[in-house]
Amino acid sequence: MADDDPLARTALTTILGSASDLDVVGSAGNGAEAVQAATRLRPDVVVMDIRMPVINGIDATRHLTSLSPTAGRVLVLTTFGDEEYLLEALRAGASGFLLKNSSADQLIGAVRTVAAGEALLAPGVTRMVIERYLAATGPTRSAVSVLKRLTPRETEVMALMARGLSNREIADRLVLGETTVKTHVARILTKLAVRDRAQVVIAAYESGLVVAGRTDGS
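The structure corresponding to this sequence follows.
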């Protein structure tokens, strides 16, 4: 649990500690401490505040995700005022984000989701942020080239992932078995060399596969 506010850190730690299946193994008051603690303790999830001294949450996330997958998946704590930082956090390798005004149950559920290897992305907020900061620049050449690695079906699945659909919803939309969709998702992650759905969403927008302002699934 990384947060520079001692009261917030204590409260969040208490909330997570109340869940029988969760164990808070350490805490940090700044980004540098978070990197050191996560590297040493190897947690499943690092709950990371963005605005912290010494090293901010974005740079700390980048450090952790570049070190090793075993350094822990990062769940970023954010507020609506941090929108300009959110995209940077996702690009840095965060597995998702949670608003600081979320309920205790939502926090516990978010940690469980990220620990299970899924990305925690609120489609509406995520799309708003990505469209705001990527749409103006248009597709990037490197991101467009990524799509050439995918089969037509994988491209379809990727577009629906970027729209926030679950594996079950994608299976229903494409009339496929859920197991088949999971296989496609795994191959997309491998071909894109990313660790979870959060980075797939970024790649989909950067490549132009998903176009800002459109809701038709393309």
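The domain at 138-207 is CATH 1.10.10.10 (Arc Repressor Mutant, subunit A).
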